[in-house]
Amino acid sequence: MKKEIRNFCIIAHIDHGKSTLADRLLESTGTVTTRQMKEQLLDDLELERQRGITIKARAVAMKYQRGGIEYELNLIDTPGHVDFQYEVSRSLACCEGALLLVDAFQGVEAQTVANAYAALEHDLTIVPVINKIDLMNARPDEVAEEMMNSLGTDPFECVRVSAKTGLGVNDLLEAIIERIPAPTGDPNAPLQAMVFDSNYDDYRGAITYVRIMQGTVKRGHKIKFARKGSVHEVVELGQFAPARVSCNELSAGQVGYLICNIKSLGDVHIGDTVVDNIDKSAPALPGYARPKRMVYCGLFPSDGQEFTDLRDALERLAVNDPSFEFEPETSDALGFGFRCGFLGLLHMEIIQQRLENESDIDLVQTAPNVTYEVVDKRGNTHTIHKPQDVPDPGDIEEFRQPIVRCSIIVPNDYIGSVMKLCQERRGIQRAHEILGANRTMLTYHIPLAEVVYDLHDKIKSATKGYGTLDYEMVGFEPADLCRLDIMVNGNRVDALAIVCHRADADRRGRAVAKKLKSEIERHMFEVAVQAAIGSRVIARETVPAMRKNVTAKCYGGDITRKRKLLQKQKEGKKRMKAVGNVEISQKAFMAVLSDG
Ligand code: GTP
């Protein structure tokens, strides 16, 4: 008899209650008892706890009895943040259905729309769910209408739940079984399994997470990873419930793990296909779309000795996160380091934090920049990942920058301030859609550089936190851009160069020079900070020579304050880099983000 299986994921905006709902489903199906229920079971990566964002996709199998039939419900966890679309699409490829979870008070957000479209593109059946109906200020009817207007879901099909109290969760389980189709795929066909995640266990080696598309895999089978053709024996296989539970076989439609004595995570490629080790094995599945790395920054050890430690740490991270890339970079100012590519700003912050948590290296990070294209006078196109590589003005025929389509959902009161922000960021309005009584979706084309600098934060503060932003690449477009160089005592500091719009160059140049003046500590001599385009200096500031010691301004008698100040100065010292004979702090390298 064919097993009754349902594979689904939950897609939701951050904080709409995905983890809480997952916990309730585990509890309602008896997969874990209330006592075993650790808070927020699915978010177990420590960093995720700190940041409260689900980053890595996980899978858990639940058993549910109904009408004498046992159902296996596989829940695949997905991240909700705009930077992690790539991981979302990995999870979607393993499911037949998606619970589209929307907070009954917050309503539809930009990421909800983006993720719902992604699910539809993967042909998933969508079960709309309105969560947090226990809230005093819940407005489920309006939210159902917003969902209809933005996503086309039928208000009568919305399942209303409280993930917190468990209200409606049984109805949701029914909806999962009734509406989401069972997986197809012949258990007797040649094996074809999609690798959607992996992690490393110190005792067992690499653990490969798979969704079996067709065929059956058993303990002792020899399997082959299609991409490299490497052959391994399956020594253990099973499912997560939510701890690892081993079994004898996994067949078409199931989701689980394989352990094959693989000693390095580098041998397991996410998006790869696992097949039988026979001549007529099944074809490889289409992999996942390669993630687009659009934001780059330089990472340098503040102590040059730590270069190899940094390389090892980056290698470890890259294995676990295929969307992150790095290559060696040499900077006159910062020495040997790496140029790293990220999906977005949040991704960059997370990698940086993980580096600091997991290794003991002091880092100096340069300001993030986006990828540019430059066509030189000879007609050659160059892809530029760092501003200092932009050729001199005389050699540029065309300068192109990446443009993204931003969808911004805001309560109506804030439409004006958000439109103003987008216009200031050189946005071009493309659409203005009314989603409900008090929510509007604005669509703008905006240069990615403007988005990554601070648009998200600015929208959040302009809308008291209610506005949400999502973006996707449109393509490269020509723009009037220039390279702005920063010089410290006459030395061009490559790591401080930025690319900006020519019309903004004077303002940016002045702002950066001013910011640097405040970030560079006084030396025994005067320090001149200049901003220049080509050979034209557009701004100059001077850091006067040192006269007093740092504690001098604490004229009161409070010794603890003085100590704190000295301590702070000592800590600040750690992340210093010398440019010529001028010491520049980590914070100063981010000064180029300053807007004036
Ligand atoms: P990320 O992991 O950051 O994407 O968030 P999430 O979508 O998993 O949200 P999470 O489950 O962490 O819930 C966010 C907050 O909403 C938590 O403080 C929950 O306690 C709360 N919450 C979740 N569901 C409900 C609900 O049904 N009612 C109420 N009142 N609060 C809820």
Structure summary:
It is found in: Cell membrane. This protein is an alpha+beta fold.
- Beta content: 35-45%
Distance between the termini: 69 Å
The main sheet comes to: 8 strands, antiparallel
CATH superfamily assignment of the largest domain?
P-loop containing nucleotide triphosphate hydrolases
Organism: Rubripirellula amarantea
Subcellular location: Cell membrane
Protein name: Elongation factor 4
EC number: 3.6.5.n1
List the helices and strands and how they pair.
Elements: E1 4-12, H1 18-28, H2 46-51, E2 59-66, E3 69-76, H3 85-92, E4 97-103, H4 110-121, E5 125-131, H5 140-151, E6 159-160, H6 169-179, E7 192-201, E8 205-214, E9 216-218, E10 222-225, E11 231-233, E12 236-240, E13 244-247, E14 249-251, E15 255-259, E16 273-276, E17 295-301, H7 307-320, E18 325-331, E19 335-342, H8 345-358, E20 363-365, E21 369-370, E22 372-376, E23 381-384, E24 396-411, H9 415-424, E25 428-436, E26 439-447, H10 448-462, E27 468-478, E28 481-488, E29 491-492, E30 498-501, H11 502-519, E31 527-533, E32 536-543, H12 559-574, E33 576-579, E34 582-585, H13 586-589
Parallel strand pairs: 1-3, 1-4, 4-5, 5-6
Antiparallel strand pairs: 2-3, 7-8, 7-16, 8-15, 9-14, 10-11, 10-16, 12-13, 12-15, 17-19, 17-20, 17-21, 18-19, 22-23, 22-24, 24-26, 24-27, 25-26, 28-29, 28-30, 28-31, 31-32, 33-34
Helix pairs in contact: 7-8, 9-10
The protein binds guanosine-5'-triphosphate.
Guanosine-5'-triphosphate is lined by residues 12, 14-20, 43, 52-54, 80, 131-132, 134-135, 162-164.
Domain Tr-type G: 3-184
Keywords: Cell membrane, Elongation factor, GTP-binding, Hydrolase, Membrane, Nucleotide-binding, Protein biosynthesis
Membrane topology: Peripheral membrane protein
